[in-house]
Amino acid sequence: NAGVMQNPRHLVRRRGQEARLRCSPMKGHSHVYWYRQLPEEGLKFMVYLQKENIIDESGMPKERFSAEFPKEGPSILRIQQVVRGDSAAYFCASSPDRTGYGEQYFGPGTRLTVT
Amino acid sequence: QKEVEQNSGPLSVPEGAIASLNCTYSDRGSQSFFWYRQYSGKSPELIMFIYSNGDKEDGRFTAQLNKASQYVSLLIRDSQPSDSATYLCAARGGFKTIFGAGTRLFVKA
Fold first, then answer.
1. Are B96 and A105 in contact (CB < 8 Å)?
2. What is the 3-state secondary structure (H, E, C) of chain B?
3. Of the candidates A42, A55, A56, which has its C-beta nearest B101's C-beta?
4. Percentage of chain B modeled with pLDDT above 90
5. Confidence at residue A102, expressed as pLDDT on a 0 to 100 scale
6. Average pLDDT taken over every residue of chain A
7. Rounded to an integer, what distance in angstroms lies between the CA atom of residue B8 and that of residue B4?
8. Are A84 and A108 in contact (CB under 8 A)?
9. pLDDT tens readout for residues B53-78
10. Are A75 and A32 a contacting pair, CB within 8 Å?
11. A97 lies within 8 A of chain B by CB
12. What is the Cα–Cα distance from B8 to A93, expressed in whole angstroms?
């Protein structure tokens, strides 16, 4: 049973370019969460999605960041016009249900470096 | 602002000792609680979750929950050097999970 998959594992972008990060949840999981982690810091919640719905995006910066989880295919976190401060590890997690205990399983992460 | 607080450490224990990691949370509506282990440069790995007051044991790990005190702990018995990592505490209320900043544990051989 494959775990949460993320790609790419490492992404290098120049300032001003766009970054697209992909996440495929575990089989049977319909809830996806995105987190950002700066070096030596904790996980910061960004957004929670279900298929075709954004449930909570209270942690997303208001500009340049967007997320989607289409009916078919992976969840996408998109960062437009990247800046150096966007350099971080971005983790995706999936959860089997919304009203249960809510344990989340994390993917390996995408390390974004903005040069 | 809902928060989960952890001592950042590092917590240093000798091999074979019991490591005790603590966490407090501010949201009384939190219903379930999680401990994750994160090695440097890796993603968080779920160790245990607990939702009822009391203790829950799994191998060398015991999670303890006291909702009245809003306190969660993780005990690691017979600590091994491979347990050296950052341990993240998380609290979930509704559909939102809040993570603490983590405690760094160092187990000396």
1. no
2. CCCEECCCCCEEEECCCCEEEEEEECCCCCCEEEEEEECCCCCCEEEEEECCCEEEEECCEEEEEECCCCEEEEEECCCCHHHCEEEEEEEEECCEEEECCCEEEEEEC
3. A42
4. 87
5. 78
6. 92
7. 12
8. no
9. 999 999 999 999 999 999 999 999 99
10. yes
11. no
12. 23
What's the rounded mean pLDDT across residues A31-54?
A: 91
B104 within 8 A of B7, measured Cβ to Cβ? no
Contact B107, B79 (CB under 8 A): yes
Q: Which two tokens stand for residue A89?
A: 């590890």
Joined together, the tokens standing for residue A50 give 């279900």
Q: Is the separation of the CB atoms in A2 and A108 below 8 Å?
A: no
Q: Report the distance separating Cα B95 and Cα A55, nearest Å.
A: 9
* Shortest CA gap A113–chain B (Å): 14
Reported as a pLDDT band with limits 50, 70 and 90, residue B91 is very high
Cβ-based contacts of B43 with chain A (< 8 Å): 91, 106-109
